[in-house]
Specification:
Layout: H1 2-7, H2 15-32, H3 34-48, H4 53-68, H5 74-84, H6 91-104, H7 107-119, H8 125-138, H9 144-161, H10 166-177, H11 187-196, H12 200-229, H13 239-264, H14 270-288, H15 294-327, H16 330-338, H17 345-362, H18 365-382, H19 387-401, H20 409-418, H21 422-445, H22 448-458
Helix pairs in contact: 2-3, 3-4, 4-15, 5-15, 6-14, 6-15, 7-8, 7-13, 8-9, 8-10, 8-12, 9-10, 9-20, 10-20, 10-21, 11-18, 11-19, 12-19, 12-21, 12-22, 13-14, 15-18, 16-18, 17-18, 17-19, 18-19, 19-21
């Protein structure tokens, strides 16, 4: 389900979308003319009908080229090839492979045990453990769904056994999993960096402090809820237990140190860090822990190939879409729509956040990034927003979208692994949207939170 969701987009509520598309079509027609309105209308119509996102993008662009006659149709194939001919994209299969290896090698369990010994003494202890484990694991996988599917199974069961409400357990697990693509390494950041021609290393550095801020604010909400519901500590602090669990997890905890430290110190590029993560995960799983069998390796390899192919298909199709938008000056039309507000940095950031939040409710993260970067980024850059800062804003917005219906991929994954209905998962997540939105506003309007580290290291 997780991998197919990247390729296929299906929303259970079609009628409201069709109504919205009708309004959108009228606006686009008034702004851009017949051909571009046909492009958008055909794209969103195919999405509503359940056509895979990559096929919808490529198909709409091909029809646009054929009808408009602006360029030969062979340009579609050339643009798709050029779109995936990028060195940073090599990081994608390796980070996916590394995350799957860690989930299958038992690394997640060791991380959870250490986090419990470190933070279980706090009020609402396992809730804080949940966040802490996600912060550590985010430095390894770079994907929210990998966090939810890997750590989520362990965390939700532990919280249920300790007497926590199921909705609370699922809600904090879902919310904490969104930290994964913010703290480096991050698959969405790699895609954004390619689409925006921005430094992936700077994007990784820019996500570190916002990710830690997300964790701190989620822990604040856990404390508030725990006081109201009477949740207490789940374990006494013990130096001996902490030492034992640290000893079991120390090699696993070195993974984010190797990845992030190697990038920041310049030992290797973000792409090379992905390879290092795979080599280290294989070393732990095969040589040290001896938990990876040939059967598991084959399964993980096939999953990685399938997921990578889907992502690259989307990126290739989106590159045609981006080229059409830029060559037809869609950004200039958008500026005309905003009118006097187009020169206001605050207005543009608010507009971008609103668009991203709405799109994030209906579209998978990678697809949304590839479609929206060529539309929104030039508008933001024109009012003085740094592309690296805007990348963090975009990814954080879309992470919140993973927790909202009708798509809500993280909620679907956790519903499956926890046997809790989607509706109850959604109810449990609602309180944790408050700190995430507050964090989004802080990151949006206080650029130093994102830009301090990349400025210190790279500029």
């Amino acid at each position: 389900m997780t991998r197919l969701s990247m390729l296929r987009w299906r929303a259970p509520v079609v009628t409201p979308l069709l109504s919205g598309l009708a309004v959108l079509g009228c606006v686009i027609l008034a702004l851009t003319g017949y051909y571009l309105s046909f492009l958008f209308f055909s794209l969103f119509t195919m999405l509503v009908l359940g056509v895979p996102i990559a096929i919808s993008l490529a198909g709409a662009c091909l029809m646009f080229v054929l009808i408009s006659g602006q360029v030969p149709d062979i340009v579609v194939a050339h643009r798709m090839i050029n779109g995936i001919d990028s060195f940073p994209l090599l990081a994608i299969p390796f980070f996916i492979f590394a995350g799957s290896l860690m989930n299958n090698a038992g690394i997640t369990e060791r991380i959870f045990d250490f986090a419990k010994a470190l933070m279980g003494w706090m009020r609402g202890g396992l809730g804080h453990v949940n966040v802490g484990a996600s912060i550590v694991f985010s430095g390894m996988s770079g994907a929210a769904v990998a966090d939810a599917g890997g750590l989520g199974t362990i965390e939700i069961k532990a919280m249920k056994d300790a007497g926590y409400d199921e909705e609370f357990a699922v809600g904090i697990t879902a919310a904490s999993s969104t930290i994964g693509p913010i703290i480096p390494p991050s698959l969405p950041m790699v895609i954004y960096g390619v689409m925006a021609s921005a430094s992936v290393g700077q994007l990784f550095a820019a996500g570190l402090l916002p990710g830690l801020l997300m964790g701190a604010m989620l822990m604040g909400m856990i404390f508030i809820i725990s006081r109201r519901r009477g949740y207490t500590a789940d374990a006494r602090f013990s130096v001996g237990v902490l030492g034992r669990t640290f000893g079991r997890a120390v090699l696993s905890l070195m993974t984010p140190v190797i990845i992030v430290g190697g990038i920041i110190t310049g030992m290797f590029t973000p792409t090379e860090s992905a390879v290092a993560a795979v080599v280290y995960a294989l070393f732990l799983g095969v040589v040290i822990y001896r938990t990876l069998t040939w059967r598991k390796l084959l399964k993980v390899s096939m999953e990685t190939i399938e997921t990578t192919a889907i992502i690259l298909f989307i990126v290739g199709a989106a590159s045609i879409f981006a080229w059409i938008l830029s060559s037809n000056q869609v950004t200039q039309h958008l500026v005309a729509l905003l009118g006097p507000f187009a020169d206001s940095k605050i207005a543009v950031l608010l507009f971008s956040n609103i668009v991203l939040i709405i799109i994030g409710c209906f579209m998978e993260t990678i697809a949304a990034i590839t479609i929206l970067v060529p539309v929104l980024l030039p508008l933001a850059v024109a009012v003085g927003v740094d592309p690296v800062h805007f990348g963090v804003i975009m990814v954080l917005n879309l992470m919140i979208g993973l927790l909202t219906p009708p798509v809500g991929m993280v909620l679907y994954v956790l519903s499956r692994v926890s046997n809790v209905s989607f509706e109850r998962c959604m109810r449990g997540t609602i309180p944790f949207l408050i700190p995430l939105v507050l964090c989004l506003l802080l990151v949006t309007f206080v650029p130093a939170i994102s830009m301090w580290l990349p400025t210190l290291v790279y500029r």
